[in-house]
Description:
The protein has 18 helices and 3 strands. By secondary structure, the protein is mostly helical. It has 2 domains: 1-187, Preprotein translocase SecY subunit, CATH 1.10.3370.10; 194-424, SecY subunit domain (Preprotein translocase SecY subunit, Orthogonal Bundle). The protein starts with a helix and ends with a helix.
Amino acid sequence: MWQAFLKIWSSKDLRRKVLYVMVLLVIFRFAAHIPIPGVDIANLRNFFNSNAYLGLLNVFSGGALENFSIVMLGVGPYITASIIFQLLTMVVPKFEEMQKETDGQRKIQQWTRYLAVPMAAIQGYTTIMLLQRTGGGVLGQMSVWQLLVAITLITGGSVFTMWLGELITEKNIGNGISIMIFAGIVARIPTTAQQLFAAYDSTQLPTLILYIATAVVMIFCVVFVTEGQRNIPIATARQIRGQNVAGRETHLPMRVNQAGVIPIIFAVTLVLFPPIVGQYMATTSIPWLVTVGNFIVDAFNNKLIYGILYFTFVFIFTYFYTAVVFKPEQIAENLQKRGSFIPGIRPGKATADYLHYVSNHILFFGALFLGAVAVMPVVLQAFASGSSSTLVIGGTSLLIVVSVALETIKQIKSQLQVREYESF
């Protein structure tokens, strides 16, 4: 490990990139502590500690939500916009064609940024309304002018956060959005750990040990899935004709989980949306809305329903996002241009079909495994006595932290290898 740190520090370019990313994360964490004026922060924090669903969103924002910070929404609006456009690429032929081209991908990315702005304004408004209705008056009554100022600051903070995430992505250290969520969760680890230990007394020590053991198992499982891959053998025309290089082996690595941590982030975003809306509906003065809202909240308080939905969303989004990032047709075309092929498989469409088949085959187990690991804390919370929502929050956070850390380390290692090759 120390050798890797020394290599990073000895590479001037890579050292600058890492320090640059760290500075951006410090700026983000600083912004998370700049509150919008006129809010009782102490009462707001108590409210978030007592609300499991908003508490999980607060963890993802790194505590910015309970601080009523200008970046309180974090990268939520951008994630919502990304989900919308990625769904469009799956169902609208025009967007599907654009996704296959570099210029089209840039346009979709730009449109995603544009859509994130109104999404930030809408989510900012709904968050304020939700806190006013369900927060026991922690926000107080806002005038129209105060509401407009708050929404403007929240929207600007979301755009600023999105910009920071894209700056991080440009440095090829990792996915900027994932790293910012990672930074927010890590910043909340001391508070989350304190809440977890405070929830148990000496009589519940076995349960606490079970939770810690579960965390260790989850780390092992996430590492196992993230590092798992199947190597597809690759041959070239030169390898067949030239005996001097015929013994060299080449392969195409296909990871079990090619989508990384994005499916988990998407799944959490969607699974939290209905109960939050239900809480808002339950505070209205319309009887049938109150009934529907209470039904939704009660349904999601049922650990079985919550766990099934969470597992299903993780499973589906693993397939969905893999279809976005893994392009067998493009890989087959690149192999054919290089004069390479998979032994026993014809170049072109047959190669693309084979890669698609292998991807779906290994992805099924990867999605199943990832979904099972994701709902493991929910299962324990349902069957362990004296459990609290802190376990689910901590379990989901742990899942994201480990996955993002592995992805970032892998990208840094790849950059180190490139620099080692260039030095020869």
